[in-house]
Prior knowledge:
Radius of gyration: 29 Å
Strand content: 25-35%
CATH class of the largest domain: Mainly Beta
Number of strands: 39
Shape: elongated
Number of domains: 2
Mean pLDDT: 96
Low-confidence stretches: none
Largest sheet: 9 strands, antiparallel
Distance between the termini: 60 Å
Strand order of the largest sheet: 23-24-25-26-39-35-34-29-32
Bound molecules: nicotinamide-adenine-dinucleotide, uridine-diphosphate-N-acetylglucosamine
Amino acid sequence: MYILVTGGAGYIGSHTVVELINHGYKVVIADNLYNSSFDAVARIEFIVKQHVPFFNVDIRDKEQLSKIFETYEISSVIHFAALKAVGESTKIPLKYYDNNVNGTIKLLEVMDQYNVKNIVFSSSATVYGDVTRFGDNSMIPIPEHCPNDPTNPYGKTKYVIENILHDVYNSDNKWKTAILRYFNPIGAHPSGLIGEDPLGIPQNLLPYLAQVAIGRRDKLSIFGNDYNSHDGTPIRDYIHVIDLAKGHIAALEYLHNLQNDQGLFREWNLGSGKGSTVFDVYHAFCKVVGRELPHEVVGRRDGDVLDLTANPKRANEELKWKTHLTIDDACKDLWKWTVDNPSGYNIDNYSWKALSANDLSNRSHTIKVDDTFKVSIMNLGATIQNVTYKDAPVALGFVTEQEYKNQSFYIGATVGRYANRISEAEKLKLSVNENGNTLHGGKFGFDKKDFLGPVVKRNKKENSTTLEFYLLDPHLENGFPGDLGTLVKYTIASGSIEIEYESELLGKADETFLNLTNHSYWNISTGSSIDGTKIKMATNKALEVDSKSLLPTGKIVDREVTGFAKGSAGIDTCFVLEQQSVQSVDTRSNELQTVLEATHPDSKVKLVVQTTEPSFQLYTADHLDVPGKFGPRGGFCVESGRYIDAINQESWKKSVILPKGETYGSKTKYAFESV
Ligand code: NAD
Ligand code: UD1
């Protein structure tokens, strides 16, 4: 059974989805991305290390909404989807009523049709209106029985929806309805991967202050210091978004614990019960940032009131929920989110497109570093799909997902769990896919899997962009022992792509073995063949292999290569850098070493390959054959990694065995320049 989360790509929704999954729930997200980005969903998946079904639908579209209920068995709905800007709602009230009220009506109709009658609704403390109207402080801190009197169209939509939900419950007592009235949500996920990303000028206190701190705004305006508080600024009940997210789990569990035929309509305040002034929050954030942030006290903002502090007793007692995190925690997490993502999810030189109509699990991600260099990488196989240097393609790749699925040449893919061949694979109980060997990870290797992510981040100072992809490969996949978590991090800078692999054994075995590489086919010529490419190698030492089995004999022999002349014999050889140890499972502390330089006299393009790895397979693809696309010697591969079949050679074995608690790692860099 799934929990449908409407608005799950938004600020509070994304944090709640993470908490739901951490608590063992299965989740489907519906969001029209009006005020959010699919990158938030990709990052949710990255945090929880699993795929989360996502539907790009407007909740007012009943037909599309019904498809979700057809596809997944939904037990309950958490309903966040709404427009939420108070100021904007006074300018375009009809849009607010249509989106929020009409959207909820459509959602309730579809839920009713599919007999799903559990709902947790995002309401707001704004329904109470100005509680100082009671004059005698009798309603501060605010209890749930405080009369409602919202003062703006946004607040009124929440008030109307609460009433609709009440009427629906009155008409059919099977509905179980939790109304959660949030006070002031702040902060971000401590990973720094998800957070609040307001469009345009932020209206709320902390998002604005964060943008001042990161240099996007000049100074904070403090709206009045003549209120009756300890420092003259208004009092609010700020609550960490993680605590708030957990409040939804508590409410959901409360509903699930009711007797089957026992309906409910009940409101709960989600707040800390502790009021803080604007200056309290300002000082807490300045402390985290480490400096005084520019600010100026200006006149009061229209509609602001002295004190909105929750009385959260009902939620504390009935939901067994209370806040645990402080304003200091929220400021720390907000600052991490801001520093790691100075412009939110929006990265100016990054774009993506879907590779199939209804499924965003495999997308093509493009980084345009500058006018000379552009790289596309997709989720399937964390594959390098396209590299353009000075307007010419320098790597082989396809456009559609199907083209990748139709071929068996690993074009541009991450190869795992084990690059190249493992002999006597049956003895190791591995998937056999070539003459008794496991080749490139077996029948269902990394190249055939959708990696999660990417998490895209821009480093403006270095003019580089990183894309991080993650794959959790389960125990005994292709026969390999242990759950294996692998991070593939691409750093794209001007003219260069650096690949970093990092793997950890997550369980079900005490050790496993692996060897990761990238299988890009480079072509720096001006034509469709690599003929004429000149090669300068850092080594002339290679593994001797048996000519029939292509497996190493254990000996190292001399092999001189200077280029790929027309008509010359193909190369498919593992070259070794004898000075690099074959004992280390994490080579990242080695310096990147230049292992090969390729140039072509016609294009005058040079490719320099560097790696921390002890060997690399140089392969001229003499058997490449994708009709109408790429023929023999259409590209050459430089696959850095560990020695071939190291797992079966006592003296090389250590480099491919990953014990639990240790980390596997390597780095390889491909750089282009003009000569
Ligand atoms: P948000 O804008 O970040 O998230 C709302 C999400 O709903 C967005 O991803 C948006 O694209 C989506 N959405 C909007 N209309 C939709 C539609 N018609 N169909 C499908 N998706 C739609 O806002 P948030 O801060 O995460 O707020 C979530 C909920 O909590 C809202 O209902 C809001 O009113 C309520 N709330 C928020 C606050 C706050 O301070 N953030 C306070 C009280 C209540
Ligand atoms: C506002 C909304 C409320 C919504 C909540 C959370 C109004 C009247 N209410 O509450 O419906 O639930 O956001 O989204 O808009 N402040 C400054 N300078 C700024 C911004 C804010 O001094 O640039 C002060 C405000 O005067 C206020 C406090 O900071 O005293 C908090 O403001 P804000 O974050 O906008 O939240 P609320 O006004 O409490």
